[in-house]
Amino acid sequence: SKMAPVKVFGSAAFTNVAHVLVCLEEVGADYEVVNIDFLAKEHKKPEHLARNPFGEIPAFQDGDLVLFESRAIAKYILRKYRTGEVDMLRESNPEEAATADVWAEVEAHQYSKAVAPIVYECIVYPTAYGIPTNQKVVDESVEKLKEVLEIYEGRLSKHEYLAGSFISVADLNHFPFTFRFMETPYASVFDSFPSVKAWWEKLLLRPSVKKISADMQKRV
Amino acid sequence: SSPVKVFGHATSTNVARVLLCLEEVGAEYELVPVDFLAGEHNTPEHVQRNPFGKIPAFQDGDLVLFESRAIARYILRKYRTPGSPDLLGENGGAEEAAMVDVWTEVEAQQYHPAISPVVFECIIFPVMRGAKTDQKVVDESLERLRLVLGTYEERLSKSRYLAGDSFSFADLNHFPFTFYFMATPYAALLDEYPRVKAWWEDLMARPSVKRVCANMPTKFCF
User: Which residues of A touch B72 (CB under 8 A)?
Assistant: First the structure.
C-alpha cells in the first residue's frame, strides 16, 4: 500500500528545513510542506510547540510519529526509505556508518560553526531583521572557515566523498548552509580549495540538490 | 582481539562520553594519554588520527575515528552484546531510534550551548588559563539553561527518560558537562526542576557512570 505523505513544518527558505527536504528528495519519498509563519511567530504558538517544544523549525510528522531537530529527522528519513541503491547511513556496516557519522559530526561542530555566522551576518540579519552585518564576526568566521576547509581539502583530495567512496548523510548535511554561504560575498573562499570546490559542484548536480536549491531561492 | 584505544585523558568531557559507552557495553579498552601541554595534539601522529587536533581519537584495529558522538555510536553498535542495553534504540524500530536521535540532537543543540559556558567560565578557563570567570556570560547562560530545563521538566513528566521509557544514548550524552556543572557554584539550579534532578540522580547511579566519575575531579584549584 502507498505510504501516506510525510509532513514537514516550515518553508524551504530555512536551512534546517531544506536539510530535511533534500533527504526526502534523495530517497524519493512523498511529502507535504506545511508553512509556518515565522514573522507571525507561529513557531512559538501552542500548536507548533506541541510538535517542537523548543519552538523551532522544522518539525516533522509521519503518521503518529512527530520529530524535531533536522539532523534527527534526516536520519529517520534516510533509514526508513533506505534501499539497495540509496543508503546514506550504511548502518549495516559499522565501519562505514562510523565514517559517515564522523564527518556528519564535523559538519555540526566544526563546519557549521564557521559557516553559519557568515550566513547570518551577511544574509539573515540584514534581510529578515534589518540588523547590519557585524564585520568583525564575519572576518573571524572566514578565518576559521579557511582552517576548516584546509582539513576538508586534505580529506577530499584523497576521497571522492567525505565518508570515502560513497555519498552519505555527511555530504548531504553540508548542502543547506553551503548553498546560502555561496550567496554571500565570500563564496570565492572555496576557490583556494580545489578538491572541496569540486566536491561542492558535484553535489550541486544531484537532482535532489537542484530541486531544493530552486526552492531555497524563493524567499519567504 | 586487542582492546580498542581511546586517545585523550579521562577528565575530558568528550573522552568521558566515549568511556561511558565502552563501560556500558563492557568492552575492553586502553586509554592512551595525549599531552596537551607538550603540544602532542598537534603532532603529525595525532593529527593523522584527528585532523582537527582534538581529543578524543579512537582506534579499533585499522579503523581510526574522531568526534566523540561518532565514536560513541560505533562502540554501541559494534560492541553490543545480548546483555547490554539497546542504547541507540535500534532494536525498537525506526520510531524508537528516531526519538533517541532527537534527544541526542537536543543535548548537542540546546542543552550543551546553555550549560557549557558555565562550565568553561567557572572551571575550565580558570584551571587551564588562569582566567577570571566572566560573570555576564555565566548569567546569560543560566537564563538560557533555565528555559531548557523547563522544557526538560515538561518532557520528563511524560516519559521516564528523554527518548522514552528506556534509558538511552540521549540521556548518557548529558553526563559529562552536567557532571562538571554540578561542581560549579550553580549546582542548586537543578533543585528547581525535580524531575530533572531525579533523572540526573538515576544517571549518576549507573555502574558505568560511577566507574567513569571515579577518574573525574569534583574539586578544582585555581
Answer: none
pLDDT of residue A1: 40
In 10 A of CB A101, how many CB atoms? 27
Tell me: pLDDT of A97 over 50: yes
Quote the pLDDT of residue A220. Answer: 45
A140: its cell numbers: 573571524
Residue recorded with cell 566523498 = A161
Q: Which domains does chain A have, with CATH numbers?
A: 6-81 (3.40.30.10), 94-211 (1.20.1050.10)
Q: How far is B102 from chain A (nearest CA, A)?
A: 5
Whether A75 sits inside 8 A of B98 (CB atoms) is: yes
Domains of chain B: 4-79 (3.40.30.10), 94-212 (1.20.1050.10)
- Decide if B151 and A110 are in contact by the 8 Å CB cutoff: no
| Upstream peptide bond of B56 is cis (omega within 30 degrees of 0) | yes
Query: Which chain B residues are closer than 8 Å to A154 by Cβ?
Result: 51
Beta strands (DSSP E) in chain B are 4-7, 29-32, 57-60, 63-66
pLDDT in tens, A110-126: 999 999 999 999 999 99
Contact check, Cβ <8 Å, A94/B74: yes
Best mutation target among A61, A105, A150 (most B Cβ atoms within 10 Å) is A105
pTM for the model stands at 0.96
Cis peptide, bond prior to residue A53, ω within 30 of zero = no
Q: Is A95 on the interface with B (CB under 8 A)?
A: yes
Cβ-Cβ pairs closer than 8 A, A with B, add up to: 77
- What is the value of ipTM here, to two decimals? 0.95
pLDDT mean over A50-55: 98
pLDDT of A125-173, one tens digit each?
999 889 999 999 999 999 999 999 999 999 999 999 999 999 999 999 9
- Give A80's contacts in chain B (Cβ within 8 Å): 94
Which chain A residues are within 8 Å of B101, Cβ to Cβ? 69, 71-72, 75-76
Give the closest-approach CA distance of A147 to chain B in angstroms.
9
Compute the C-alpha angle B184/B186/B187, nearest 5°: 80
Alpha-carbon distance A218 to A11, whole Å?
10
Mean model confidence pLDDT for chain B: 95
